[in-house]
Amino acid sequence: MATSLDVLDTKGNKAGSVDLPAEVFDVQTNIPLIHQVVVAQQAAARQGTHKTKGRGEVSGSGSKPFKQKGTGRARQGSVRMPQHIGGGVVHGPVPRDYAQRTPKKMIAAALRGSLSDRARGGRIHVVETFAVADERLTKNAAEYLSKVVQSKNVLIVLERGDDVSLRAVRNIPSVHVLSYDQLNAYDVLVSDDIVFTKGAFDGFVAGPASGKSVKAAASSAEATEEVSA
């Protein structure tokens, strides 16, 4: 695997290079671990607001629809019972919290493993910026992006405060945009290529390099779990 990546300028030419720390971009990919973390992240995103009415909640009389004996029919106690049309639902879903507790070290390890997989496949790229023009930001950014990658689904990682780049790429249909502190295993895995801006790459790498990888990698999934809770 390459230990460095070229940084492309707004013309698509090499404008420098960045190093790929082995502890972040060249670790063993633990598939069961990644699967557990991704399932937990998807579960935490569920609203859990589904609800059906039981026999005590549906409208209808509580009296017997007909007498107990002498009709030749099966005895019935209420029209609100499940076997009747409009009756209650048996064991139906009720509002619940689907969030799973996932250790932050597992979340960080899953992110490193997924990034390492993309790095070994040559699917991580670094550019200076997506603010490639003063007019028609999105059109010019889409044309520039097509020169950098040719894949269908692209994850673009920006630094917070890079509003011009965000405006340029947020409406491209094939693009998903995150700030570097929101980067997570799920979004990496569902994307074919990951494109960092130079500032976002430096900011992301500075976390693991300074021992803050757990906090940086866990921020997105942790925020989702807090919303669900």
UniProtKB/TrEMBL annotation:
Keyword Ribosomal protein set for record: yes
Keyword Iron-sulfur assigned: no
Keyword line: Ribonucleoprotein, Ribosomal protein, RNA-binding, rRNA-binding
Spans annotated as Disordered: 45-94
SUPFAM superfamilies: Ribosomal protein L4
UniProt-recorded Gene Ontology molecular function terms: rRNA binding; structural constituent of ribosome
A GO biological-process term: translation
One Pfam family here: Ribosomal_L4
InterPro entries the record matches: Ribosomal_uL4, Ribosomal_uL4-like, Ribosomal_uL4_dom_sf
A single cellular component GO annotation: ribonucleoprotein complex
Protein role: One of the primary rRNA binding proteins, this protein initially binds near the 5'-end of the 23S rRNA. It is important during the early stages of 50S assembly. It makes multiple contacts with different domains of the 23S rRNA in the assembled 50S subunit and ribosome. Forms part of the polypeptide exit tunnel.
HAMAP family recorded: Ribosomal_uL4_B (MF_01328_B)
Record-stated family: Belongs to the universal ribosomal protein uL4 family.
Subunit organization: Part of the 50S ribosomal subunit.
Name listed for the protein in its UniProt record: Large ribosomal subunit protein uL4
Gene name in the database record: rplD
